[in-house]
Design brief:
The protein is an alpha+beta fold. Among the domains are: about 10-155, Hypothetical protein af1432, CATH 1.10.3210; about 465-575 and about 580-610, no CATH class; about 625-700, Alpha-Beta Plaits, CATH 3.30.70. The protein has 27 helices and 21 strands. The strands form six sheets. It has a five-stranded mixed beta sheet. A hairpin with a 2-residue loop joins strand 15 and strand 16 (about 590-595). The chain starts with 7 loop residues before the first helix and ends with a strand. The model has no long low-confidence stretch (mean pLDDT about 90). GO terms for molecular function: kinase activity. This is GTP pyrophosphokinase. Keywords: Kinase, Transferase. One of its GO terms (cellular component) is plasma membrane. Belongs to the RelA/SpoT family.
Length: about 700
């Protein structure tokens, strides 16, 4: 390997322009000297001195992101020292450069404990970074600059590592650059990552893009606009941008498209906001705009702070996008809104607070996919409004529930629907651009269906739903765990009050748990088996004294007061009915798997007595969902007789022909509602007495 030294003298001259005469300037120069010493005689695979990398990261922050706070730049210079230099710890950085620089460097430092599983380790690394960035968004700004420089020098890496870094960039870092409003960085990240991810297809597309650049249509448009602007005495700069690989990447399907709708953008830079609207008039008079495609992001800026006017027109059979901005709007559009910013400035703006909230969610909640949440955060927006006229900007295809959670967490948790244009819609209703949304709430928190987790588009809604599902499951698991443990103790002749004794804390501690409630939840999900708990009680509370013979025979019993699909799964193999008494359930980590005792599949599964329970439900258990029953082959008179003599508690919605079979025997589906399980039991008995074959599976 040929070693290539780094010219620190030239680097100092370049960086002097950004940090001279700024507060904490000396911190930057001290950090540069410290990093030079720490990385002495370290070399990159390309042959460059390692100090090139942290210096380049700081330079990207200053030159390309307008981040010139000397302490943030100092943290960029030091971001690899704790991880790569044995003598340097987080405390050492804090002693030399203060707690602010230490916090950023610590947030950028990868976890040191590795499991050996690359996928698990990757999740740990990223969640640590996200958690650090939730407190100090500077952490993510440094990591984005770090990733961009790594991409620029990726060619020196082996092919498998190039592919892995490209995948990670497409899934995490490029979308995060979009969320942060760093659009120049986003485009370059996508372009570089895609060139490594799809080398052959990317090369073909690049030739197609060059062909577009040679097209005379866009050049003709520029000439016409310049003439029209001169006639209108409008001073402006007009240029074009041919969209690169980044615009052809379909993030949802992870493929490169062959063509896109608007491959060429016309950029118009003017001197003032008033001139923006004048320029829009010039564009519309020169090229007829496509109806309802003009977007005013000056009056309604995007959450990232992006401003400008957009208009679209079809010229010679091709779509063109016109973007009109002032010079300052152009700077923000490319470099973001982080000029002269730091998290120490006190009260932060709404955009920063929303970034921190998203980073906190994806860094702390393991039940949701951070890749999905990051992708959702970078989607194009719809503009919706509260009844007071407050703007709520949401990703496209967001639901009423997304809107409710964006307004306030409690409003989301109690949302049962909304009123839009005097029409009531459900929480899963997909919002359209420009709608005013009046949320309808219940007094109690709503038990949402699990499908809402896939329908929602915002990180906050998904995280709050996942949290509520987890809490609902934990409540059921805790109830089951406590009830089954008490029954098992009774089998061994142990008194109930043992659970409340001081010695029980030793039993809990032996399983490395904090309290009894966690122990009950672990038992209720089958993670800790009853024999283990009984044996632990014997050792901790009875000094290992043997009990009577080990009990066998019947399952433990549990009677529930709710039907919650978050924790209760009715097995598809036997379709158990909750009104039957011959049901049992297996304790699994994903919840209760309910079977009928006569189920052939159940008899094939190997399990111990303690791993199963007899399960039943209180007759007053509420049923909140509409139900349906299928009569696969019945005559019209038979169906009418069933409907006419139905129990009074059965509220019928409709009955429809499911499929034609013959003139007198058809398939019918009856939709109905009942309030409680005992009402459903009466309905089932009514169907049984009719003597007609039917198929019913509870929807809950």
């Amino acid at each position: 390997m040929i070693k290539i030294p780094f010219d620190l003298g030239l680097y100092r001259e370049k960086m002097r322009h950004y940090v001279v005469d700024r507060p904490y300037e000396q911190v930057f120069w001290d950090a540069l000297a410290f990093a030079e010493k720490a990385h002495y005689d370290q070399w990159r695979r390309s042959g460059d001195a390692y100090i090139l990398h942290p210096c380049s990261v700081a330079k990207i922050l200053a030159e390309e992101m307008d981040i010139t706070d000397p302490e943030i730049l100092a943290a960029a210079l030091l971001h690899d020292t704790v991880e790569d230099v044995d003598e340097v710890s987080s405390d050492v950085v804090g002693e030399h450069f203060g707690s602010y620089v230490q916090a950023i460097v610590e947030g950028c430092t990868k976890v040191t404990h590795r499991s050996g599983n690359r996928q698990v380790d990757s999740k740990l690394v990223h969640r640590k970074i996200f958690s650090g960035a939730a407190l100090r968004p500077e952490v993510m700004l440094v990591k984005l600059a770090d990733r961009l420089h790594n991409l620029r020098t990726l060619r020196a890496m082996p092919r498998n590592k190039r592919q892995r870094i490209a995948d990670e960039t497409l899934d995490i870092y490029a979308p995060l650059a979009t969320v942060f409003g760093l659009f120049n960085m986003k485009r370059e990240m996508y372009n570089l990552a895609l060139s490594y991810k799809f080398p052959k297809q990317g090369a073909k597309l690049s030739n197609h893009i060059k062909h577009l650049a040679d097209s005379k249509i866009s050049q003709h448009i520029l000439e016409q606009l310049r003439i029209a602007a001169k006639d209108a005495r409008l001073k402006c700069e007009i240029s074009r941008r041919i969209k690169d690989l980044w615009a052809y990447y379909d993030t949802a399907n992870r493929i490169l498209l062959q063509q896109i709708e608007t491959p060429v953008e016309i950029l118009i830079i003017v001197n003032s906001v008033e001139d923006c609207y004048r320029a829009l008039g010039v564009v519309n008079q020169t090229f007829r705009p496509i109806p309802r495609t003009i977007r005013d992001f000056i009056a309604n800026p995007k959450p990232t702070g992006y401003q400008g006017l957009h208009a679209r027109a079809i010229i010679s059979g091709q779509r063109f996008l016109f973007k009109i901005r002032t010079s300052e709007m152009e700077r923000k559009a490319q470099r973001g809104v982080f000029r002269n910013w730091s998290s120490r400035q006190g009260k932060q703006g709404k955009f920063i607070l929303e970034l921190q909230e998203m980073l906190d969610i994806i860094g702390s909640d393991e039940t949701v996919s951070y890749r999905e949440l990051i992708a959702a955060g970078g989607m194009k927006e719809n503009y919706t409004y509260t009844p007071r006229g407050d703007l709520i900007c949401l990703p496209i295809r967001s639901t009423v529930l997304d809107f409710a959670f964006r307004v306030h967490t409690e409003i989301g948790l109690t949302c049962v629907g909304a009123e839009i244009r005097n029409q009531r819609v459900g929480p899963d209703y997909v919002l359209q651009d420009g709608q005013m949304v009046n949320i309808i709430r219940s007094r109690e928190k709503v038990a949402f269906r699990q499908k809402m987790l896939q329908l929602c588009r915002t990180p906050k809604a998904r995280a709050e739903l996942a949290k509520s599902f987890r809490q609902r499951g934990q409540r059921v698991a805790q109830e089951i765990g406590k009830a089954t443990l008490l029954q098992e103790m009774r089998r061994y002749g142990l008194p109930r009050d043992l659970l409340d004794s001081e010695g029980m804390s030793r039993v809990v501690a032996s399983f490395s748990l904090k309290d009894k409630e966690r122990l009950f939840r672990q038992i209720g999900t089958g993670r800790i088996r009853l024999p283990e708990v009984i044996e632990c009680i014997r050792q901790e509370l009875f000094s290992g004294t043997s009990f009577l013979a080990k009990p066998t025979g019947e399952f433990n019993k549990i009677k529930l007061k709710m039907l919650d699909p978050v924790f209760i799964k009715l097995s598809s193999c036997c379709r158990p009915n909750p009104v039957d008494k011959a049901n049992c359930a297996l304790l699994t980590t994903k919840g209760l798997s309910v079977h009928n005792k006569n189920c052939p599949r159940l008899h094939e599964i190997k399990f111990q007595r303690e791993d199963a329970i007899d399960i039943s439900w209180e007759r007053t258990t509420p049923i909140s969902r509409p139900q349906s029953v299928l009569f696969p082959r019945a005559g019209r008179e038979e169906i009418l007789a069933i409907v006419a003599s139905a129990p009074s508690h059965m509220k019928m919605h409709d009955i429809v022909v499911a499929s034609d079979q013959s003139a007198d025997r058809q398939s019918w589906r009856l939709h109905f509602e009942v309030a409680e399980l005992r009402d459903l039991q009466k309905v089932i008995r009514h169907f049984d007495r009719s003597g007609i074959s039917y198929e019913f599976t509870l929807d809950f």
